[in-house]
Design a protein that fits this description.
The chain has two helices and no strands. By secondary structure, the protein is mainly alpha-helical. The chain has a domain at 45-80. The termini are far apart. The mean pLDDT is 75.
């Protein structure tokens, strides 16, 4: 039995034949104007977001330490 012949094996072969090609999804037109505008807005807001995240992390560390110390006192155990 002869194997089937396809006009372009990379494009029309069933996936179980071992020919698998992923099409290029990148656009040749480049970045759209809207994406450039969004990028500039993101650049401006990113430092503010980072500052907020750092402040939140610092507060969370303090709350965790207090909570652990309070549980130690309530249980009468010392973890340290």
């Amino acid at each position: 039995m002869a194997s089937p012949i396809w006009p372009d094996p990379a494009r029309s072969a069933p996936s179980n034949c071992g020919f698998q090609v992923v099409p290029n999804r990148n656009s040749d037109t480049g970045t759209s104007a809207k994406n450039r505008i969004d990028s500039k807005i993101t650049e401006k807001t990113m430092p503010m977001v980072v500052r907020m995240a750092i402040a939140e992390l610092a507060a969370r560390i303090v709350i965790t330490i207090r909570s652990t110390a309070l549980r130690e006192r309530k249980s009468g155990l010392t973890i340290r």
